[in-house]
Amino acid sequence: MSIRRLQNTYVGAADLPASRRFYEDLLGLEPKFVDGERWVQYDAGGTNFALGAPEECPRGARGAVAVFEVERLDDQASRLQAAAVEVLERRDMGTHGRLITVVDPAGNHIQLFERATPPRECSLRARRQPLSSPLWGGVRGGGRPG
Q1: Integer Rg of the chain from CA
Q2: Do 77 and 85 contact (CB within 8 A), yes or no?
Q3: Is the confidence at residue 94, as pLDDT, over 80?
Q4: CA 106 to CA 100: how far, in whole Å?
Q5: Which of 56, 81, 97, 114 has its Cα between 20 and 30 A from that of 74?
Q6: Are the CB atoms for 69 and 96 separated by under 8 Å?
Q7: CA distance 68 to 57
Q8: Under 8 Å CB-to-CB from 25, ≥6 apart: which residues?
Q9: CA-to-CA distance for 133 and 146, rounded, in angstroms?
Q10: CATH-assigned architecture of domain 3-115
């Protein structure tokens, strides 16, 4: 298995606003990404550290969760399962990527994360289509596509 890097470490926070005050006001961390009341990510000296609402944490996790960025997540999951490691959760996070949750021999929840492939650029021809073209669903007058 090829680990690209430690992508993130996070802790669960039942009271996200109180946890944010602690990490931001008392420890001086500045948010670099916020997803409402679900997730706050910080740059902690070149490493990501985050707070996750309970619904963002693996069921049964206690303490910190390490997230390792990998390539070919499906291959990694198959390799772990072949070694009798249960994949507890598979999660598609849309444009962010996908992850799986497993438990190490000591009972710690860890996650393997594969970054989403960035969308390919549109061809120059497609970018020059008028807003009334079928590419935009027939929207006219500069409105947003439905």
Answers
A1: 20
A2: no
A3: yes
A4: 18
A5: 56
A6: no
A7: 15
A8: none
A9: 13
A10: Roll (3.10)
127 CA to centre of own chain: 29
Q: What is the pLDDT of residues 24-67, one digit of tens each?
A: 888 788 999 999 999 999 998 888 999 999 999 998 888 889 99
Q: pLDDT-derived band of residue 139, with 50, 70 and 90 as boundaries?
A: very low
Residues 6+ apart with CB under 8 A from 85: 102, 103
Residue 78: the pLDDT is 92
Domain ranges of the chain: 3-115
- Stated pTM of the model: 0.64
